[in-house]
């Protein structure tokens, strides 16, 4: 087997092992998010699964949030807790990294970090998370709910004692916007909020 043919076979095997997710423009924010739409980018991003169906559509805030303070093991300490990061719409059932069901619907994403109480050891290298809440009940883009209040809002979406969460981090590696596979199961979406690249695990499951 020639070197070029070997490379070609290896490439085909690699493609077959990973689902090929893609991104496309999503257009304007949905009407369900009209209360916070003025704070969002005018054109969102749509994530397509390998079968062409839509996993999610996302509209991040147009300006980078501020007001944060130094916090241990976080990557985005300049952002205040509870800051609105954007809106995400799921057209079909999905799941977060805990394996909790995300029902079809539109959700706000607010910045949070899990508490250092020993309950979250090993879930991620960083403590940064986006907590999802029903857009219909989260209508103030300027609000900064405290941790307990934010968790209570999200329980209306999860239907469990635990909030719906997406693992996120501020990426300083100069990576381009788009989506890429990471590890054996994760798909990481990279989006720009102002001049900052935010990385979001949109597919994956924590095995712990």
How would you summarize the topology of this molecule?
Layout: H1 3-17, E1 22-27, E2 44-48, E3 54-60, E4 84-90, E5 94-95, E6 101-102, E7 105-113, E8 128-134, H2 147-158, E9 164-171, E10 178-182, E11 186-193, E12 196-203
Antiparallel strand pairs: 1-2, 2-3, 3-4, 4-7, 5-6, 7-8, 8-9, 9-12, 10-11, 11-12
Number of H- or I-type helical stretches: 2
The ordered string of helix (H) and strand (E) elements is: HEEEEEEEEHEEEE
Largest sheet: 10 strands, antiparallel
Beta-strand fraction estimate: 35-45%
Oligomer, anyone?
A: single chain
Describe the structure.
This protein is mainly beta and 208 residues long. It has one domain. The chain is 13% helix and 36% strand. The protein is built from two helices and twelve strands; from the N terminus they run αββββββββαββββ. It has helices at 3-17, 147-158, and strands at 22-27, 44-48, 54-60, 84-90, 94-95, 101-102, 105-113, 128-134, 164-171, 178-182, 186-193, 196-203. A ten-stranded antiparallel β-sheet has the order 1-2-3-4-7-8-9-12-11-10, with helices on one face. It has a two-stranded antiparallel sheet with strand order 5-6. Strand 2 (44-48) and strand 3 form a beta hairpin. The longest helix is centred in the N-terminal third of the chain and has 15 residues, at 3-17. The N and C termini lie far apart (42 Å). Keywords: Signal. Residues 1-21 form the signal peptide.
């Amino acid at each position: 087997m020639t070197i070029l043919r070997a490379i070609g076979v290896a490439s085909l095997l690699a493609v077959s092992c990973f689902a090929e997710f893609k991104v496309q423009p999503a257009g304007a924010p949905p009407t369900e998010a009209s209360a916070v739409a003025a704070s969002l980018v005018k054109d969102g991003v749509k994530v397509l699964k390998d079968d062409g169906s839509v996993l999610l559509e996302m509209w991040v805030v147009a300006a980078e949030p501020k007001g944060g303070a130094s916090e241990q093991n976080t990557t985005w300490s300049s952002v205040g807790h509870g800051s609105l990061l954007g809106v995400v719409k799921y057209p079909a059932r999905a799941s977060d990294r805990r394996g909790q069901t995300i029902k079809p619907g539109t959700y706000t994403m607010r910045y949070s970090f899990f508490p250092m109480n020993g309950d979250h050891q090993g879930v991620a290298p960083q403590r940064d998370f986006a907590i999802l809440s029903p857009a219909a009940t989260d209508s103030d883009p300027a609000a900064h709910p405290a941790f307990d209040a934010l968790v209570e809002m999200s329980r209306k979406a999860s239907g469990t004692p635990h909030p719906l969460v997406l693992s996120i981090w501020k990426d300083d590696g100069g990576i381009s916007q788009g989506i890429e596979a990471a590890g054996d199961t994760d798909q990481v979406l990279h989006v720009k909020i102002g001049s900052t690249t935010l990385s979001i695990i949109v597919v994956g499951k924590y095995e712990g």
